[in-house]
Write a structure and sequence with these properties.
140 residues; alpha/beta; Nucleotidyltransferase, domain 5; 5-stranded mixed β-sheet; 3 helices
Length: 140
């Protein structure tokens, strides 16, 4: 049995030492806020759209109808922005807000309170054009 183990160790490939990864610095980022009636999702991306950090009211520990509150959006925004600042050194941001939930204003105010310089504030909520198909006419 000893001979078998010695052969196995001799044929094992030699591992090359890994190069140390350089820390990526993203000073200018995009913050996307999706504020629905039931949840608020905050995503921090670089200008090309690659995700750096994200958080939601649900991932921050809120459940049920509490996920749609302004406080839950505030906690989620703090979590996402602090992760982006710590890992990538984010200082400035463009903010893109989508949706009609209570978390719209709370998330934006939290960004400003977290000492992130907000360059642009864009509302990209979808607007219906033409509306939905009307109901069929009632027969009399």
């Amino acid at each position: 049995m000893r001979e078998e183990t010695n052969q196995a160790t001799e044929t094992a490939p030699i591992k090359k030492p890994r190069k140390k990864r350089t820390k990526r610095s993203v000073v200018y980022a995009h913050v996307h806020v999706l504020a629905s009636m039931n949840n608020t999702i905050i995503s921090v991306t670089d200008p090309q759209g690659a995700l750096l950090a994200s958080a939601s009211a649900g991932s921050s520990g809120f459940r049920g109808s509490k996920k749609g509150t302004a406080y839950a959006a505030q906690v989620a925004a703090e979590k996402a922005v602090s992760a982006a600042r710590q890992l990538y050194g984010m200082e400035k941001a463009d903010v893109f807000i989508r949706g009609v939930g209570m978390g719209r204003d709370a998330a934006t105010r939290t960004l400003i309170n977290q000492k992130v310089k907000v360059e642009n504030l864009n509302d990209i909520t979808g607007v219906p054009h033409g509306g939905v198909r009307p109901r069929k006419a009632r027969r009399t």
